[in-house]
Amino acid sequence: MRAVLGRTAALAGAFVAGAVAAHAAAIPHLVRLTRDLQRSRERILASREEERRRLRHDLHDGLGPTLASLAMSLDAARITLAGEPERMDPLLADVRDRLATAVGEIRDLAHGLRPPALDDLGLVAAIESFAEGCAERVDVRFDGGPAELPAAVEVAAYRIVQEALTNVRLHAPDSTAMVLLRRDADLHVMVADSGPGLPDGARNGDRPRPRRGMAAMKEWAAEIGGGCTVTSRPGGGTVVSARLPLPAPGAAGYHHAPPGHRNGHP
């Protein structure tokens, strides 16, 4: 009996020691993951604040003075109309030209907040439109349907695909590409091409030289709680894969896309 108890105690001690050793070995990995997550959050916050700073600057120092100047010009035109009506034509022409410039600035600001193609065409058609000329052939497919996609997810998916196809156009314009969007509990996005793939150093496991486009894709996915990876295929070509979480049905989540474009087309 004592021998059995001794063996049991030894086995229990070995199990505890193994669990402690495994836990201790996992701690550095968890620390690295925590640091990486913190750095990712810091980059996202910095990028968001920079975008807000730019938007405020454009509104305050660009569009604001333009509109104030237009108001003054209209006051001058009103006074001129009362005393020298023959001088009205050049004044109104100047106001018209400056108003057209202001409209262009407003349009640029709106485009920076949300790609207009999403509202004009819907996600699928917007991707198809952008894909024209990016490669010899680009096939776009959506499994599961884009109906009722949250607006934030729609924008992130479009920007990731847009950046991936831009890289194809710049580095492998003679290749073919495929854009696959698949919807289940999450939205999965994949862009694969038949080009040369990532640089040799990245294929061999070395840390690739940072690229703004690759970092931006990861940030767009991380902003809504998802993830994005960029890898090379064994036979050549690059694969961009992203997972974008979707809120559960009926749960409070992101705002949905405008109802007029729920099927991917107007």
Automatic annotation (TrEMBL):
<keyword id="KW-0597">Phosphoprotein</keyword>
<protein>
    <recommendedName>
        <fullName>histidine kinase</fullName>
        <ecNumber>2.7.13.3</ecNumber>
    </recommendedName>
</protein>
<keyword id="KW-0067">ATP-binding</keyword>
<dbReference type="Pfam" id="PF07730">
    <property type="entry name" value="HisKA_3"/>
</dbReference>
<dbReference type="InterPro" id="IPR011712">
    <property type="entry name" value="Sig_transdc_His_kin_sub3_dim/P"/>
</dbReference>
<keyword id="KW-0547">Nucleotide-binding</keyword>
<dbReference type="GO" id="GO:0046983">
    <property type="term" value="F:protein dimerization activity"/>
</dbReference>
<dbReference type="InterPro" id="IPR003594">
    <property type="entry name" value="HATPase_dom"/>
</dbReference>
<keyword id="KW-0418">Kinase</keyword>
<feature type="domain" description="Histidine kinase/HSP90-like ATPase">
    <location>
        <begin position="154"/>
        <end position="247"/>
    </location>
</feature>
<keyword id="KW-0902">Two-component regulatory system</keyword>
<keyword id="KW-0732">Signal</keyword>
<dbReference type="Pfam" id="PF02518">
    <property type="entry name" value="HATPase_c"/>
</dbReference>
<dbReference type="InterPro" id="IPR036890">
    <property type="entry name" value="HATPase_C_sf"/>
</dbReference>
<feature type="signal peptide">
    <location>
        <begin position="1"/>
        <end position="24"/>
    </location>
</feature>
<keyword id="KW-0808">Transferase</keyword>
<feature type="region of interest" description="Disordered">
    <location>
        <begin position="192"/>
        <end position="211"/>
    </location>
</feature>
<dbReference type="GO" id="GO:0016020">
    <property type="term" value="C:membrane"/>
</dbReference>
<feature type="domain" description="Signal transduction histidine kinase subgroup 3 dimerisation and phosphoacceptor">
    <location>
        <begin position="51"/>
        <end position="118"/>
    </location>
</feature>
<dbReference type="GO" id="GO:0000155">
    <property type="term" value="F:phosphorelay sensor kinase activity"/>
</dbReference>
<dbReference type="GO" id="GO:0005524">
    <property type="term" value="F:ATP binding"/>
</dbReference>
<dbReference type="InterPro" id="IPR050482">
    <property type="entry name" value="Sensor_HK_TwoCompSys"/>
</dbReference>
